Each structure stands twice: as structure tokens, then as C-alpha cells.
User: Which sequence fits this backbone?
């Protein structure tokens, strides 16, 4: 058989497959840990940070690649989503004790009044100035 066909040109978006896969896997890992109770929830922070870094790399590569197409919009959005995981997880890490107490209190609360007490106690732990009587 004669071969009169040219070899298929390589897909220009092919170099983006690995960074996109890493970003999606990191986002999925952060999302899985997000729904777990607090000590395990913090395990999502490294996944979210990895997704933030991988998403940034993917975004830069997508803007430099002429065949990126919708990745020029999707990669920055994925990076933003990973950043939106990083902020609350880092906050829960910074305020681990009050966050853990709040989670336990909400799990044991039976009424709306007890939920309100949990929220007020949590606010008082984060900002004790609210409980002081100022002249």
C-alpha cells in the first residue's frame, strides 16, 4: 500500500493536557476534603495550593499557546476556584481551636436557639472586644 497521506499535524493544545489534568485533580482533591469534618478538612489545603500553582502555570501556558481556545477562559477560572478554597481553609487553620469548638457545638445543637448560641460564642472567641462593655 502506498502512503500518499501526510502524517497528522500534532495538536497545538497537546502540551496543555498535563497541566490541565493536574489542576483538575488538585481541585477534586480539595473539594473531597472540603466536605469532611474539620481535622480532615485541612488536608484539602495542600491540594488547593497545588491547584493554585498548577492553575497559574496552566493559565500562562494557555495564553501563550495559539490552540488553547476556551482554556484561556477556563484556566483562570479554575485558578480562581482553587484560590477560593485556599482562603477559608487557611482561615480555619489560623483559627483552628475556635473553628473546632464551633463545629462540635453545631453538631450537638438541637434547637435554633442553641445554634445561635454557638454562633455567638464563635464570634466572641474570634473577636473578644464585642463582649466588653465600653463606656
Assistant:
Amino acid at each position: 500500500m502506498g502512503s500518499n497521506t501526510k502524517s497528522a499535524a500534532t495538536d497545538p493544545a497537546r502540551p496543555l493536557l498535563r497541566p490541565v489534568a493536574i489542576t483538575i485533580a488538585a481541585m477534586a482533591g480539595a473539594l473531597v476534603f472540603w466536605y469532611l469534618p474539620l481535622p480532615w478538612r485541612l488536608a484539602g489545603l495542600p491540594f488547593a495550593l497545588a491547584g493554585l500553582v498548577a492553575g497559574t502555570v496552566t493559565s500562562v501556558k494557555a495564553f501563550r499557546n495559539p490552540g488553547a481556545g476556551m482554556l484561556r477562559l477556563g484556566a483562570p477560572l479554575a485558578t480562581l476556584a482553587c484560590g477560593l478554597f485556599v482562603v477559608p481553609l487557611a482561615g480555619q487553620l489560623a483559627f483552628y481551636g475556635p473553628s473546632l469548638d464551633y463545629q462540635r457545638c453545631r453538631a450537638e445543637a438541637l434547637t435554633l436557639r442553641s445554634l445561635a448560641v454557638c454562633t455567638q460564642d464563635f464570634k466572641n472567641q474570634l473577636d473578644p472586644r464585642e463582649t466588653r462593655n465600653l463606656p
